[in-house]
């Protein structure tokens, strides 16, 4: 069992997309604020760019939360990093960029639990499981992550690579 969960005895406070009422969702600013506010865990959504980099963004398209348009999976990391995901939320966040999963792990390391939602349920064999599993292993965060999806396949593919990582099936009636 995941040591982080086993040793945590009170209910978990999970910041869904970070402190998304105080900072732009799924940004480092939102995750920082969530931890300042006392969240035990941060929930983030992961898409794969065209050049196979896992980025933290909820929607499959850039339209709602950024100054850009188009599908995340059709853009390179360079194109994703050009998007401003802050100014639509509030002018004081102008210049906030889409983080990669690696940047998230670099910034917060083992100070939080991560609920990682794989957003490739329509294309579960696109390799997102492999790159996410590699990053979890590289940063030695096996005891600090739960991998989840609305489809059972993407988390199971991660679990095949890292058996001790707990997986969660999300359900929306």
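Q: What amino acid sequence fits the structure above?
A:
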């Amino acid at each position: 069992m995941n040591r982080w969960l086993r040793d945590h005895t009170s209910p978990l406070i999970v910041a869904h997309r970070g402190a998304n009422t105080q900072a732009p969702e799924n940004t480092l600013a939102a995750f920082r604020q969530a931890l300042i506010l006392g969240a035990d865990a941060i929930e983030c959504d992961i898409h794969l760019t065209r050049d196979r980099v896992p980025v933290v963004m909820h929607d499959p398209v850039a339209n709602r939360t950024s100054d850009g348009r188009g599908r995340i999976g059709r853009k390179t990391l360079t194109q994703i990093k050009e998007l401003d995901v802050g100014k639509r939320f509030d002018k004081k966040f102008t210049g906030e960029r889409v983080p990669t999963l690696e940047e998230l792990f670099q910034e917060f390391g083992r100070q939080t639990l991560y609920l990682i939602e794989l957003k490739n349920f329509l294309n579960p064999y696109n390799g997102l499981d492999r790159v996410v599993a590699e990053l979890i292993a590289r940063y030695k965060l096996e005891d600090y992550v739960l991998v989840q999806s609305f489809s059972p396949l993407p988390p199971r593919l991660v679990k095949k690579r890292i058996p001790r990582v707990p997986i969660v099936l999300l359900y929306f009636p």
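Q: And what stands out in the fold?
A: The helical segments are 3-6, 28-36, 77-81, 101-108, 128-138, 153-161.
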